[in-house]
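hey so u asked for the seq, here:
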Amino acid sequence: MDTHTPTHTEALGPRPEPSGPDLRHHGDAEVRDDGSALVDLAVNVRADTPPAWLREHVAASLGQLAAYPDGRAARAAVAARHGLPVERVLLTAGAAEAFVLLARALKVRRPVVVHPQFTEPEAALRDAGHTVGRVLLRAADGFRLDPAAVPEDADLVVVGNPTNPTSVLHPAGVLASLARPGRTLVVDEAFMDAVPGEREALAGRTDVPGLVVLRSLTKTWGLAGLRIGYVLADPETVGELERAQPLWPVSTPALAAAEVCVAPRALAEAAHAAHRIAADRERLVAGLADFAGAGLRVVAPPEGPFVLLRVPDGAAVRHRLRELGYAVRRGDTFPGLGGEWLRLAVRDRATTEGFLRALERAVAVPGPA
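ran it, structure tokens below
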């Protein structure tokens, strides 16, 4: 029997264009067209990527374009990176394709998505005709997950870690406790390689029943335009998802990128970048603390390459920031958030200092006319 209160769960009907937040809005919309010249704090792709060595490796693969893609080497490389047999790995055209495959291929009756989080999982489930339940985490709890908030009869649970947009890193034990017989537990770890030591990661675990881990290579390596990610799951689930894929779903250049991005050299570079991001994030959060008097609050402690903040009249502040040359991610398209929420990508010291100066002007309350 479901005893959870309406403040935690919300049943939704399967309709193509749901009322409420726009699930199809993403950060790249902030920097298209008239936003192309803005300093981009809206998209969570690591700055100054892809690095030259990765561009050169991808470019070298173009000589193989006459042949159909062969994903065996890349799949084996990903499996080795996580200490898994290849039967537990599926390469995908970014994590977004994985969400579509899960929604279409798995036979589920009551899928639940933990929000606020990346909205594509719910959008994909809706498009596949599912009725979706929401577990809405609360700002008052620091957007921390209480496993008891997830309905016992949910047979598909989707949660991000670290979660976009809250930057909350849930303990691995808390997420693993959501596993149940007959339940698929999907953990989106698209930003986990930006966490020093990848602490709290579930990738590579085989002792959690029904676990499906999604990884993306687009964020850390600046490959959003190439579309490459992967699924880690039990062989039966991988087989179901693979049967739902079209032939040759991942291009030869994307396969080349996947293989080299999980090699020891790349992993070492990513680990170094994770520590640099943590230092840059600490600097950003310290600067944002100076705005506490204006009512600005940061969701703490942030653990991803972005921070979520709440600021009075957030929509107006976001528009003023655009006028001052900075694009930030609006929060009101995430279920559970409203217009007062903004997400900021972590950037280098100079960019952060420039942004903080702009923010000081954007939050200043105009005097009487």
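The chain has a mean pLDDT of 92. The CA atoms of residues 137 and 143 lie 5 Å apart.
lmk if thats what u needed
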